[in-house]
Write a structure and sequence with these properties.
Length: 352
């Protein structure tokens, strides 16, 4: 009763994209505009501007373009981190995949931190120093998630002075967007093993009581890492970057498949451009993705882009060395391992 033909509803929540498609169709029949708008940025985004991913009729976006541009984050070149994504559920789908990529990023970083701790015996402050080095503007891993990982590792309990990360339960909850991403990938027949591994790792982390019981019975054999610590840190660095490329390529492949099915005509370079600031996965890496899609909008897969494929070809052994070393010291490598497996499958030009 409060809406009239020509009015616009903005859904800025983490809505499931199929619900957005259904709602937009229903409201369109009543001449009411509906724009499903993915928003990423967390607390900092709320204060300084988020990345915004609007989907719906172009007419709806035109009505709010100036507002969205004014409130969105700005990349280093001053560009607003918002653009029209596509019809009906496109914006919420892209935001869902963003969150899935975020799950993958966090899991990959977590496995690397765990390996640095277990293989080298580094404490939280030492690992925080490594993260700070990797977050230098000139470093290929520079990103918000690397930054806050380092910051979080330094946090201490006031009373005891002990590192909070060592006193925090290793249980990770989730709100559902990662699960939606994996389910959508299964439906669209797009393999996203790194993101799936991240979701399953969160699920396994919640079985704390079971893990405590099983650890009393199963005693895995592990061996110490005896090589140069500096060499291992470099191995971890390069392995993480390759796994990150693999994970992002999986997310972009999923968006390509959805774009084809739903007729969204997603612009992958524009999406990467809008993720360069404001959102949780903002990183220097996204500028490279933007440039690669600008050079070749028909890129078959992100890993085929020259700047990424050359690094993979040169440093792939680092990912293999990392996985072996981590497993030798008892560190699970679900995400790092599946990133490597995904690459290995793509390398196979012969019959499997």
């Amino acid at each position: 009763p409060l809406l009239e033909p020509g009015d616009l509803i903005i859904d800025g929540g983490n809505s499931f994209y199929k619900d957005t498609i259904r709602r937009e169709k229903y409201l369109s029949g009543k001449n009411i505009l509906y724009i499903g708008t993915g928003v990423s940025g967390g607390e900092e985004g709320a204060l300084l501007g988020p990345a915004i991913m609007p989907g719906g009729k172009r007419q709806a976006y035109d009505m709010v373009e100036d507002i969205f541009s004014d409130i969105s984050a700005r990349a280093e070149d001053g560009a607003p981190c918002v653009s029209y994504i596509g019809l009906d559920g496109a914006g919420h789908f892209v935001k869902m995949v963003h969150n899935g990529i975020e799950y993958g990023d966090m899991q990959l970083i977590g496995e690397c931190v765990w390996a640095l701790k277990s293989a080298l015996g580094y404490n939280a402050a030492q690992i925080a120093d490594i993260m700070a080095g990797w977050n230098r503007p000139s470093d290929i891993l520079s990103s918000y998630l690397i930054e806050i990982t380092g910051q979080g590792m330094r946090e201490t309990e006031k009373a005891s002075g002990s590192y909070l990360v060592d006193r925090t339960a290793d249980i990770t909850r989730m709100k559902g967007t990662g699960t939606w991403t994996v389910a959508s990938a299964l439906e669209l027949l797009v393999p996203i093993p790194t993101i799936a591994a991240a979701v399953f790792s969160r699920e396994m982390s919640q079985d704390k009581d079971l893990r405590l019981e099983i650890s009393k019975v199963l005693k895995p054999v592990s061996s110490a890492y005896n090589l140069d610590p500096r060499e291992f840190v470099n191995i971890v660095h390069d392995a993480l970057y390759i796994a990150k490329i693999s994970s992002y390529a999986q997310g972009f492949a999923l968006m390509e498949a959805a774009s084809s099915k739903y007729g969204w005509k997603l612009d992958m370079g524009q999406i990467a451009r809008g993720w360069r600031a404001g959102c949780i996965i903002r990183a220097q890496f996204l500028s490279k993705i933007t440039e690669e899609y600008k050079t070749n909008p028909e890129l078959a897969n992100l890993m085929a882009a020259p700047s990424f494929s050359s690094f993979i070809n040169e440093k792939l052994l680092s990912l293999s060395k990392f996985i072996q070393a981590a497993r030798n010291v008892g560190v699970p490598t679900l995400a790092m391992g599946t990133s490597k497996s995904k690459l290995s499958f793509l390398f196979c030009s012969m019959n499997l």
